[in-house]
Fold this sequence. Notes:
By secondary structure, the protein is α/β, with parallel strands linked by helices. It folds into two domains: 3-210, 2-enoyl-CoA Hydratase, Chain A, domain 1, CATH 3.90.226; 214-260. The chain contains twelve helices and eleven strands. It has helices spanning 38-52, 79-82, 86-104, 121-128, 144-147, 153-163, 165-174, 180-186, 198-210, 214-227, 236-247, 250-260, and strands at 7-9, 14-19, 22-27, 59-64, 69-71, 110-114, 117-119, 131-135, 139-141, 178-179, 191-193. A hairpin with a 4-residue loop joins β1 (7-9) and β2. α3 (86-104) packs parallel to α4, α6 (153-163) packs across α7 and α10 runs antiparallel to α11 (236-247).
Amino acid sequence: xxxxxxxxxxxxxxxxxxxxNIGYLVINNPxxxxxxSLAMYEAGAAxxxxxxxxxxxxxxxxxxxxxxxxxxxxDISKFxxxxxxxxxxxxxxxxxxxxYDAVFGFPKPTIAMIQGYCIGGGMGLAVACDLRICEDRSxxxxxxxxxxxxxxxxxxxxxxxxxxxxxxKEIFFTAxxxxxxxxxxxxxxxRVMPVHMLSAYVADYATRIAExxxxxxxxxxxxxxxxxxxxSDRDLARIEAMVTGCFESEDYVEGRRAFMEKxxxxxxxx
Length: 270
């Protein structure tokens, strides 16, 4: 994938599109380490929603431009304009929540390809993804305590679901940067790759996922989301319908035939 293959939004600060059944969302603000403004949050949410509804997008890869940062969170240079009053803070918080929720609720697999720094809201974006693959020079931090800002319940819970409450406290209390190896050890990232191998590895990873049965992947993602809900809130009827739908699908027939014929299946998501 080349950035020129994607469409530009938010004055070019957000790039998005579908290439070879893989959806891409690029934070394109490298001169500010891919800090995210209000307009970028809004554009990002809209593009994620569009790709969620696009059957040609089998998964979503999120990355930052420039090679030095995945995302460094909110653009602090715009705080005076975008977060100077309680009303502004409410608008900004709503926009960030809509974006992160859109990524977390994306019904297909999501991958955060992390180059360089993953800071603050960038961590929130990465944590909202299903899988996180970083390079060995990546650094992670949530410096909220150095800025005096609050951090919402859902973002903290998503992080705690990955690394546990004790590590969440260390991340927030110290506000320090963690290395890629530390991130892997605590369960924050799935894979750590050498810098020169990351892009190719993620491209191969995404292609493998895109070739698999969409209905099966959607059901597994739905199940993992239900696991985090209280028993009384779980929609098991919906899950059962999704699982049954897999067995009643054309893809199930195709999968069996491909196995018997010793060839790669051509799934259609129906």
